[in-house]
Structures are given as structure tokens and as C-alpha cells.
């Protein structure tokens, strides 16, 4: 069997490195047990959980797929005129770019999403909702 694509979604405020790394290790082990050759980790390139997972994958020789949100790029067709905002550096961005990235990750059809959620993490909650609606299993961990 080919590699199992594992999606990682998580809060920028995630700090429990051990819990996330152990969860990813179990996902890797489970993929091997059902016949996959290994895993490929897909993540959204945000600080916190995404970065922790990406570093873990790199240290363990696991193939990585990075899916950053295009914050400064053009808006989607569901964006309303005048909704763009400016960040602390004064750069204009689309606040819905993260949601579009989440849908793109779901559209890749991973076999599982690992969701490292800190209370109030709306981006992670959005990705969990989208994955469940698409019938993709979600293994949620909290801190």
C-alpha cells in the first residue's frame, strides 16, 4: 500500500509537544498495522501544533506536505466586498483564507485528521467540522 495521508490541524496556542508527538506516532503505527508503507503528514503551516508536527515529521524522516493559507492573496467567491483587514504589520489580508485552506486540506482526502485543539480555537474547529462533513475520521486531542 502507498503512504497514508494524515492531516494535522491545530491551534496556534498548542504547547503540549509530547501529547501531539505521541499521537502522531500512534497514527503512524496504526497506518503500518493496516498495511500502509508509512505516513505523509499534511499540515497548514501555522505556529503551534502545525509547526510541532512538521518538526516531528522532519526529525523522523516522514514525508511532509505543507498547505499554507494564502492570507494576502485574492479573496474567494464567497468573500464580501470590504471584509479585508489589516494585521499588526499593516498588511491587508483575507480573514477567510484559513477556512479556504482547511477545505483544500479536506479535499486532499486524508485517511485521518489529528486535531490538536485548545479551547476557543476557531480555525481548528472549522477544520474538524469540514473533515467530519466529508466523512474523514478525526482524532481530537485537547490541552
Largest sheet, order of strands side by side?
3-2-1-6-7
User: Overall pLDDT, averaged?
Assistant: 96
Overall geometric form = globular
Question: Could you name the ranges where pLDDT drops below 50 across 5 or more consecutive residues?
Answer: none
- CATH architecture assignment: 3-Layer(aba) Sandwich
How many β-strands, per DSSP? 7
Strand count, sense and barrel status of the largest sheet are: 5 strands, parallel
The total of helices stands at 4
Total separate domains: 1
Oligomerization category of the chains in this entry:
single chain
Q: In sequence order, what are the helices and strands, one letter per element? A: EHEHEEEHEHE
- Distance N to C terminus: 34 Å
Give the class from helix and strand content and strand pairing: alpha/beta
Fraction of residues in helix: 25-40%
Task: Describe the SSE topology.
Layout (H helix, E strand, L loop, with lengths): L3 E7 L6 H17 L5 E5 L5 H11 L3 E4 L18 E2 L5 E2 L3 H11 L4 E6 L4 H12 L4 E5 L1
Parallel strand pairs: 1-2, 1-6, 2-3, 6-7
Antiparallel strand pairs: 4-5
